[in-house]
C-alpha cells in the first residue's frame, strides 16, 4: 500500500468513497451525494496547509484522508478538522491507521497545532483509532444530527500536534 498526496485525478475515487459513506453510514452527516464538481471544488480549497492524502493499493484508491480548514476566522488558522474514509471492501485492514499517521505527521509539518475530529458516538472503530493515536474526548454534542430516522450524538475529539 502506498500513502501519497492526492492529485486532482484522484478526486473521482475520493468522491466514490465519500458518496458510499453518505448513502450507507453515519460517518458523515451529509445526506445527499456530492457531484464531481462539488468534490473538485472541495479539493482545490486544500493546499500545503491542509493536506489531502490517499491510500493506493494495486491501482485502487482504498481510502483517503484530509485535514480541513476548521473555520475561515483567522484565529483558527492553525486548527484543522480531520476527515477519513475507507472504501467499503477495504475496511478493517489497517488503512485508517496508516492514513492517520501520515495526516498527523503532515499536519505538524504544515504548521498546524490542533486536529479535531467529530465522530458519531456509535462508531467504536473510529473512536478507538483516534484514542490509540492520542486524541482525547473534549465533549459530546447531543442529538445534533438526524440520519436514517435517528437522532445522533457526536463525540468531539482533539489532538495537539
DSSP summary, beta strand count: 7
Major beta sheet summary: 7 strands, mixed
Task: Report the mean per-residue pLDDT as an integer.
Answer: 97
What strand line-up does the widest sheet have? 1-2-3-4-5-7-6
**What's the helical proportion of residues?**
25-40%
Q: What string gives the helices and strands in order?
A: EHHEEEHEHEE
Computed over alpha carbons, the radius of gyration is 15 Å
Give the overall silhouette.
Answer: globular
Q: Which structural class should the secondary elements be placed in?
A: alpha+beta
User: What percent strand?
Assistant: 35-45%
Please outline what is shown here.
29% of the residues lie in helices and 36% in strands. With 161 residues, it is of the alpha+beta class. It is globular, with a radius of gyration of 15 Å.
Give the key terms.
4 helices, alpha+beta, 161 residues, 7-stranded mixed beta sheet, 36% strand, globular
Please describe the topology of this protein.
Blueprint: E1 2-5, H1 11-24, H2 36-44, E2 52-57, E3 60-69, E4 79-86, H3 95-109, E5 114-120, H4 124-132, E6 136-147, E7 150-160
Helix pairs in contact: 1-2
Describe the structure.
The protein contains four helices and seven strands. By secondary structure, the chain is α+β, with helices and mostly antiparallel strands. α1 packs across α2. Helices cover 29% and strands 36% of the residues. The mean pLDDT is 97. The two termini are 25 Å apart. A hairpin with a 2-residue loop joins β2 and β3. Strands 1-2-3-4-5-7-6 form a seven-stranded mixed beta sheet. 24% of the residues are buried.
Amino acid at each position: 500500500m502506498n500513502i501519497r498526496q492526492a492529485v486532482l485525478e484522484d478526486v473521482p475515487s475520493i468522491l466514490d468513497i465519500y458518496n458510499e459513506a453518505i448513502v450507507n453510514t453515519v460517518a458523515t452527516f451529509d445526506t445527499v451525494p456530492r457531484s464531481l464538481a462539488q468534490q473538485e471544488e472541495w479539493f482545490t480549497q486544500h493546499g500545503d496547509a491542509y493536506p489531502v492524502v490517499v491510500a493506493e493499493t494495486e491501482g485502487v484508491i482504498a481510502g483517503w484522508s484530509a485535514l480541513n480548514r476548521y473555520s475561515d476566522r483567522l484565529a483558527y488558522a492553525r486548527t484543522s478538522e480531520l476527515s477519513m474514509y475507507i472504501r467499503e471492501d477495504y475496511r478493517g485492514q489497517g488503512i485508517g491507521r496508516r492514513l492517520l499517521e501520515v495526516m498527523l505527521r503532515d499536519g505538524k509539518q504544515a504548521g498546524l497545532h490542533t486536529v479535531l475530529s467529530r465522530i458519531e458516538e456509535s462508531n467504536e472503530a473510529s473512536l478507538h483509532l483516534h484514542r490509540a493515536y492520542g486524541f482525547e474526548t473534549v465533549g459530546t454534542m447531543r442529538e445534533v444530527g438526524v440520519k436514517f430516522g435517528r437522532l445522533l450524538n457526536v463525540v468531539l475529539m482533539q489532538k495537539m500536534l
